[in-house]
Amino acid sequence: MDHTDPLNDSITRRDWVTRRAKTLSLLTLDTASWCAGFLVASWARYEFGITPRQCASALGAAGVCAVVHAALEQVRFTARGRHPVGSVGDARDLGGIVLMTAVVALAALLPMTDRPVPASVPVLGAAVALLAMGGGRVFYRWRRDRDARPARSADRTLIYGVDAASERLIRVLLGDPASGYLPVGLLDDDPERQGLRVAGLRVLGGRNELTQAVRRTRASTVIFSINGSDAALMRDVRSRTLQSGAAFKVLPPVRELLDRPVTADAVRDLQLTDLLGRAQRVAELTVERSGLAGRRVLVTGAGGSIGSELCRQIARCDPGELMMLDRDESALHALQMSLHGRALLDGPELILADIRDADAITRIIAERQPDIVFHAAALKHLTLLQRHPGEAIKTNIQGTVNVLEACRDVAEFVNISTDKAANPISVLGYSKRITERLTAHYADRYGGAFLSVRFGNVLSSRGSVLTAFQAQVRAGLPITVTHPDVTRYFMTLQEAVHLVLQAAVVGRGGEALVLDMGEPVRIAEVAQRLAAEAPKPPEIVFTGLRPGEKLHEDLFGVDEIDSRPLHPLISHVRVPPLAPAELAGLDPYGEPEELVKRLAACCDRSRARLDDAARPDDAARLSALPAPR
């Protein structure tokens, strides 16, 4: 049965014809250049009085040189390949071939007594031919680049910031007719870069000249591209851009692009996270991803913000099998779509199950036999759980016990916790603190690397304060903040995932890992910045702290010590174990107020300071880690 695709065959034939046409065009150009070079050289040699016989001799010699040139070109192509036409490499190779051809011609002419052309003709003729060949190739490159440039209808664009990423972006935009952006100039505050040209575009000044540059170039968009720039600079450039009447776009820092190349699709609108003024630590966390290669990995809560990003990052590490478990079928559908561009929901990688179902979880883990489990499934909304503590018990506590009980033969288990587990005063904090202690218990019981990871507020995750603020602004509602002085620790989704993956490498059983998230952010300031960016600044309303909320979050409990034996940005906190038997009195169907008291008592029970001395395997762990930056 013939399985050939007529469309692919047609494309292949068309490509073959195009390549042959280009080769024939270059061969014609080179032959014509040699002929022109020898004619000009002969004309000059005979003092501008060349006879028909001398002209014929010059053309004959030029034809021989053209054949030698073509042969040398083929040898070079076979041995080393071909550079793009009109490139620096192509010019270098072309010069070498012309020189060798001239040497061959001279070597053939000098022994002759009756020379068809004077010995000076190959020398001068080769120089003229090289100029003609080079000029033709430059013209070809110019025409090709011009045809590939965005259409005149594309947004005329200024790019602020000259660095490696912006240079790549400029070349990508100039070579992509569908990009929608036509670069027309550059801006940079560095005095040494004034007047510099990149891909033919000139630096027109700094931010003080932005309005003038927009007017001169008729630009409608400014793309901000400076790696490591502070939020104040970005806010200033954005303000000047909007005052000039142009749109403001951002090229994300290279650390956010991860393994993706710089493309036109990377250019995006400004996000509030760009304006927080918080330096990301993700670039300083070196993750040894080879530890996941070939291993069987299970992620619970795979459809959530953290779980889905974990799956996307783990998929890049070439695991032996990636198993994604969630009770939300729509979330699994969206996750598979983001991973593969399609979502047939018919593969074994997706597991529809609820961690509350102990029998199902036990059966799944026994059948699939994962080597590593990342436990991200949980309820996380503080206020809702404060009103329904029984649900926190059923999902966050009993669900975690179900997973831990089933992981008897699992080598590594990473429990996703929260900074609210440090000195908890809310149902969410109590439940997550209990899961940390349960994980520590099973680390002792099974002897595996069972540990927890504490997150701050993850920017742009579902239900985060920033997402809520942005929704209020879009709806034209006031921005509601609980208290003028309330602060929170923030981390980006990339930092959260890096910390989890790092935990799988450096974490030790019975610990909780905490990322150094820098200084806490005052929520009222975030609201003020967001309000200032809105077309119509909304009112900011203070509603008061809700039950279970803290004015300031803690990263460590009162009995915990900040120890960083393996990485300067990751703290290792020893967690006192808690056996499931000690939770026997927790009835999820009891009175909410009584349940809250019992949860608090479980967190306090058996609280004991743990010796923070380094373990014997610290030296081995340290030798396996890359040196911190």
From TrEMBL:
Polysaccharide biosynthesis protein CapD-like domain sequence ranges: 297-570
A Pfam family that the UniProt record links to this protein: Polysacc_synt_2
Biased composition (Basic and acidic residues): 610-620
SUPFAM superfamilies cross-referenced by the UniProt entry: NAD(P)-binding Rossmann-fold domains, S-adenosyl-L-methionine-dependent methyltransferases
Keyword terms of this UniProt record: Membrane, Transmembrane, Transmembrane helix
InterPro entries named in the record: NAD(P)-bd_dom_sf, Polysac_CapD-like, Polysaccharide_Synthase-Rel, SAM-dependent_MTases_sf
Transmembrane stretches, start-end: 23-44, 56-72, 93-113, 119-140
Location of the region described as Disordered in the Swiss-Prot/TrEMBL record: 610-629
Family: Belongs to the polysaccharide synthase family.
Stored PANTHER family: POLYSACCHARIDE BIOSYNTHESIS PROTEIN EPSC-RELATED, UDP-N-ACETYLGLUCOSAMINE 4,6-DEHYDRATASE
The protein's name in its UniProt record: NDP-sugar epimerase, includes UDP-GlcNAc-inverting 4,6-dehydratase FlaA1 and capsular polysaccharide biosynthesis protein EpsC
Organism per entry: Micromonospora rifamycinica
Species lineage: Bacteria, Bacillati, Actinomycetota, Actinomycetes, Micromonosporales
